[in-house]
Each structure stands twice: as structure tokens, then as C-alpha cells.
From TrEMBL:
Region annotation (Disordered) ranges: 204-240
Name of the protein described by the UniProt record: Oxidase FUB9
Source organism of the structure: Baudoinia panamericana (strain UAMH 10762)
Biased composition, class Polar residues, residue ranges: 210-219
Signal sequence interval, chain numbering: none
Molecular function as annotated in GO: FMN binding; oxidoreductase activity
The organism's place on the tree of life at top rank: Eukaryota
Amino acid sequence: MVVRNVDGVGDHDLNCLSIEELERHAYNMMDKQTRDYYNEGADSGSTLRENIEAYRKYRIRPRVLRDVSKINTEVKLFGHTNTAPIGVAPTAMQRLAHSDGELGTARACRNMGIAMGLSSFATTTLEDVAAECAGEVPNVLQLYLFEEREHSKKLIARAKKAGFKAVFLTVDTPFLGRRNLEIRNQFKLPPHFKIANFAEEEEPALADETTPNAPNQSRTRQKAKSSSKPGYHDGEKRVYPTGPITFHSHAANPTLCWEKDIEWLKEECCPEMEVWVKGIATAEDALLAVHHNVRGIVVSNHGGRQLNGALATLDALPEVVEAVQGKIPVHVDGGIRHGTDVFKALALGADFVWVGRPALWGLAYKGQAGVELMLKLISDEFKLCMGLAGVIKVEDISKDYLVKVDRSGFVSRL
Ligand SMILES: Cc1cc2nc3c(=O)[nH]c(=O)nc-3n(C[C@H](O)[C@H](O)[C@H](O)COP(=O)(O)O)c2cc1C
Ligand SMILES: O=C(O)C(=O)c1ccccc1
């Protein structure tokens, strides 16, 4: 049921008043294969859980008796006005959640004035997504840079033509993390869906690909092209992925490195698109990103799906912010489930946050309308948090508004 909000802020879905509730609804709406693929983290899932728990270590120090009658949550991103410092992180294969898929997410983002990151491995083409949002929201294409440069080159050219403003090169996937439910379920994309951006390159073999990170069946089905080529490390064999582009065979690229690939990518993208890196977790790599003139970084551990045991992103954020010293924007993702989390990430120095799974849960719940609901919940919570904390402009959110509480309950100023 939808009712008018008593405070006049908008409509409420009485069945779903928080992202926590949204997660529960979505849980029941997704088939097991999809739910497990979307929700799980690598190995024991401790990094996935810690991404969320890290936010609970901080509490807000609200200031009062400030006129907070006019709160502005807007920020600029790639020259566009975003209605809040929040975007939808790129996640693969959204049609698994709902037939609206990436188009539903794009329409929701457009309606809410929120940036959308589109995965290379979307089930909708980048042209169709761009057409939904053209000129209204800053679209970002997430890139997995393949060893076969020609595919990536074509994709980049298409993204430029479609008006994408930036590419986020994902750098935390030299190999795919080990996701045990995915292995056990022998997860694969059902044959009626396509990895749409590569449909031309795709062969019918997609539907029966094996799960790559399962022991002893990883990439041995791929033909070895030439022993002199770089390739995946598969036991003793070096195997270059040459077959159809499937999400299992091509997302990981262990050969990527700063000098060779970042420079190449900047040349390919410039001047039309900015090159960012997604998946930075240390001050050292943040400094390298600055050194290599990337335009921004996303502190991310891929939602805990890659290296389990890695630091929660909120805990990695301060060292990255300190290293970068404002030279390039620092964004963060992972574990953001409430508007107060957005506030905390910004207080610790992030310029912007991206939410991943909550958008998938929104899609599963009600397609486009569910993503809009999720964005409305988190944006409203963020605005309310600003007002209750006594802040009216996003740029005024600082570490003065936070304290850290340790395990024994000891409270310290930052
Ligand atoms: C099901 C799923 C698919 C994802 N696919 C991609 C992808 O294709 N490319 C990418 O860079 N990150 C991908 N991510 C990672 C997200 O962009 C983001 O880093 C992460 O979801 C943030 O954590 P959160 O889900 O806790 O918000 C994926 C995450 C999930 C949950
Ligand atoms: O599942 C993922 O986390 C992911 O990023 C991905 C996307 C496409 C192919 C393989 C992995």
C-alpha cells in the first residue's frame, strides 16, 4: 500500500520503509540461483559482513540550533547535478532480478537524478541504457579490460558515441574471487539472457559454460591461443581466453598493470571520457592512481566478493583520503544500507558513495519502481540525517560530526 507521507515529503510504501525491509522482500522474490549469486561474498563472507558492520563503529555528533530549514543534498558529478552524493554501483546481469533489468535501473536513476554505473556484463546494451538517460544523469560504464584489446576498444568507442561520461576500470579482479554458493549451484546465465554488450562476439556456448572458480574445472575449456600470449594462470597451464565472451571467462584479467594498461586506456578514452579506477583499497595504490593521472578512484572491495579478509571499505577510506589530499575525487562503495551510512562515509572524506546490492533488491521487489523506492529511501534518510545533525550543505559534512566507538564502548574524537 502506498500512502501520502504525513510530513509531506512524499509517498511511503508501507510494506517497505527501509532497505533492511527491502532486502527481506527481495529475498523472497528471487530464485535461489539469483539470490545466492547477488547476495553472497567470497569464501566465509567476513569482508562482506564487515563492510556493513564498519558503519556501526561510528556515531554522529549532532549540532543543534542551526537553521536547517533549507537543506541542499546536491553534488556535481561529471558536470551534471546529482540530487544526492549517491549512485547505483555497476552490477552484472540485472535481468536476473526482474525483466526491467538495467533499463529499469536507468529509468529509476533518471527519475531520481542519480548516477548509474553500468556493468560491462549487463544484460542490456549500453546504447539502450544511454538512450534512457541521455543528458540527464551522468552515466558511467564499468569496464573489465580484456586481454583481447579489440573487444575493449570496440566497447569504449561505443560508450563514447553513446555519451558516457566516464569509465570505471575495475582493478580488483585479476582473478574472480571464490564464491562457494555460486560453485555449488553451478551458477550460469540462463540461455534466454545475453551478455548484451558482447552479443555479437558471443557463441551459443554461453549457456553451458562451467563455473570458473570451481576447483579443477576453471578455464581448461578455453582454447590456448599461443603460448607467448599473456593469459590466465590455471594450475600449470597458461590459457588465453579466446572463446565466446562469457562473464566467467572474461571478467578476470591477471595481466593488468598501471604502466601498460592505464596509459593505453587513457589514450583510448580521451578526451571524451574520464578514466577512473574502481577497487582501490590502500594509500599506496591511491598515490599510484594520482601519479598515473586517473581522474578519480572508488575505494571498493567489490562488495566483499573478491578478496575475503580484505579491510572493510570504510576502514580503508581514511588512509586513501589522506594520501590523495584532495587531488582527485575519492568515492567509496560497500555496505551502504542507510542514509546515515552515506553521511558517515562523507564525514570520513569520501566525495560520493555507490550502492550495489540494494538496487538489485529494489529491482527484484518491483522492477524500476523498486529501484526508485530504494533511491528515495536512502536519499530521504540522508537528507533527514543532515538536518538532524545540523548540516545544510554536503561540503560541510566533516569528521567533526563523527566519533568512533571501540569494542569496549570507549568513544574517541577523530
Ligand atoms: C551481483 C553483483 C554483481 C556485480 N557485478 C559487478 C560488475 O560487473 N563490475 C564491477 O566492477 N563490480 C561489480 N559488482 C560490485 C559492485 O559494483 C560494488 O562494488 C558492490 O556491490 C558494493 O557493495 P554493496 O553491494 O555492499 O553495496 C557486483 C556486485 C554484485 C553484488
Ligand atoms: O559477480 C561479480 O561480482 C562480478 O563482478 C562479475 C561480473 C561479471 C562477470 C563476472 C563477475
